Amino acid sequence: MKESPKSKDPLELLRDSLQDRFGIDFVTISSEVKAIPRISTGIIALDKALGGGVAVGRFSELFGKASSGKSTIVLAIMVQAQKAFPDREVLYVDAEHALDLEWAAKLGINMDKFNYARPETAEQGFLVIEEFLKTDKTSVIALDSVPASVPKVALEGEIGEANIGLQARIIAQCLPRIGTRMAQLKDPPALLLINQKRANLQSRGGFQGYEPVKSTGGMALPFYMTTRLDVARIGTIKDSLDDEIGQEVLVHVVKHKITPGPGAKITFRIDNRIGIDTLQELLDLGLADGSITKSGSWFIVSSGEKLQGEEKTKKWIAEHRKE
Question: Regarding the domain delimited by 277-323, which CATH topology (the fold level of the hierarchy) does it fall under?
């Protein structure tokens, strides 16, 4: 016997009504909520800090000073997305017109599935993102960068002309539009925004809560972010000839609205020859958990073998690591 509408719970009737009206999962109950999927960053410690990687269907912001490694992290995420979703594509919106495509390929990007856009204005950049979202065929979309996304009015105006708050207003209009569009997709991408730090000239120091530097894009931008990563270069890596071959990077998880929450600080290396130095990460993790011990320049690995120097130890890890 079919259950009559009158015997249904009023809240169940309401949920069904909203479903029919809006055509989406407008209201759900806890038993229906699924875990938020993640895409690996390709950085072991950062994946752990984020609970598996950057959230799919959410905004994540990477901000920091110039040459701190933000773009390389984004490309590393795209590499992992291409491995996890080989039938889907990625979109890199290069508002700075500065991406090194050779570096992207060296990091492992499948260029046949790599869409590369170079918009002239902020409006063009956000339009490209919206159009690609409509296809529901992308796994990662990245905007590089927020401050380089200049409004059309500012480009067409006179040099020195004041356009106070114009960029922030455009971002405040576009982010909720994009967020709503992502929420309607069956398989939404992870949306990454690269941002920069600027000196805070609007107020003076000396009182609680003052920030001498801040990210660009206005006050609204951080509120739409599920995750905010402060990326900083903290050291230089040199070879035996004292030539610079990479950098040490610190990532501070400033905001993370999903488990395991914010606060983590992790470090890793970017090698100018290969990108993210995963073998160095594995070596550091081995030293931390005791599976590898160090005495001077010598390393004793889990097999009991004694190796001299980091490079030989990393070579041993590469040969014995479990994929």
Answer: Rec A Protein; domain 2 (3.30.250)
Strands 138-144 and 89-94: parallel
Superfamily of domain 34-272 in CATH is P-loop containing nucleotide triphosphate hydrolases (3.40.50.300)
Say how far apart CA 317 and CA 303 lie, in whole Å. Answer: 11
**CA gap 128, 152 in Å, rounded:** 15
Mind listing the pLDDT tens digit for each residue in 95-130? 999 999 999 999 999 999 999 999 999 999 999 999
Q: Is 308 helix (H, G, I), strand (E, B) or coil?
A: strand
- Domain locations in the chain? 34-272, 277-323
Instruction: For residues 305 and 307, give the distance between their C-alpha atoms in angstroms, rounded to a whole number.
Output: 6
pLDDT digits (tens, 9 = 90+) for 145-183: 999 999 999 888 878 777 778 999 999 999 999 999 999
- 159-165 CB contacts, 8 Å cutoff, 24+ apart: 165/218
Q: Which two tokens stand for residue 277?
A: 């130095």
